Amino acid sequence: DADVTQTPRNRITKTGKRIMLECSQTKGHDRMYWYRQDPGLGLRLIYYSFDVKDINKGEISDGYSVSRQAQAKFSLSLESAIPNQTALYFCATSDLGDTQYFGPGTRLTVL
Amino acid sequence: SQKIEQNSEALNIQEGKTATLTCNYTNYSPAYLQWYRQDPGRGPVFLLLIRENEKEKRKERLKVTFDTTLKQSLFHITASQPADSATYLCALVGNFNKFYFGSGTKLNVKP
């Protein structure tokens, strides 16, 4: 089984809808991250969490929220989706910081 | 704000040659730098890490250099193979374990 899983893998939704992307990991890492990837812009950090009680904004957190339900679970929500949130979203985990382990990604399309 | 530049144009080389990819950065003093490989439709996978006090790091056919004066890292793949074709991302890691990724360079190795 994959160490970092993301659900759903693909999602098409409409403007204004609430969307939740989920991430689970079996690596036992405390640190978890959410990124979005757009062509030509690379990976940009949305939110990160160093443990269950610690959540921090990344460089592009506006329009997003997160919840760290347990050490193994970190979900990303779009309260009211808009078309420019169409992107590839990745969850990642790390131990004390040397390496990030990425999930397979969620392709989100907002119409 | 920090800026990370990787050549956005694809690098096309012949099998057996050495591929060299460049990562330049500004407005930042990273504690260390990493290189990741990303295949289409998949999450990035960690390859190598080099710290600010290291000049060079090797792993099998891979070599990374880090010049903190030039603010540049070079990533080399020797004896390249078609299976090395992918997008390669560099990431800077600094205080508070925050990661900043470049947009990646696509490498095409032709048989």
Protein architecture, described:
The complex is a heterodimer of chains A (111) and B (111). Chain A is mainly beta. In chain A, the strands form two sheets. In chain A, strands 2, 4, 5, 6, 9, 10 and 11 form a seven-stranded mixed beta sheet that branches. In chain A, 0% of the residues lie in helices and 59% in strands. In chain A, strand 5 and strand 6 (54-57) form a beta hairpin. The mean pLDDT of chain A is 93. Chain A is globular, with a radius of gyration of 13 Å. In chain B, 34% of the residues are buried. In chain B, strands 2, 4, 5, 9, 10 and 11 form a six-stranded mixed beta sheet that branches. A five-stranded antiparallel beta sheet of chain B has the order 1-3-8-7-6, with no helix packed on it. Chain B is built from no helices and eleven strands. In chain B, a hairpin with a 6-residue loop joins strand 4 and strand 5 (45-51). Helices cover 0% and strands 57% of the residues of chain B. Classes of the chains: A mainly beta (111), B mainly beta (111).
Keywords, separated by commas or semicolons:
heterodimer; A: 111 residues; mainly beta; 7-stranded mixed sheet; 4-stranded antiparallel sheet; B: 111 residues; 5-stranded antiparallel sheet
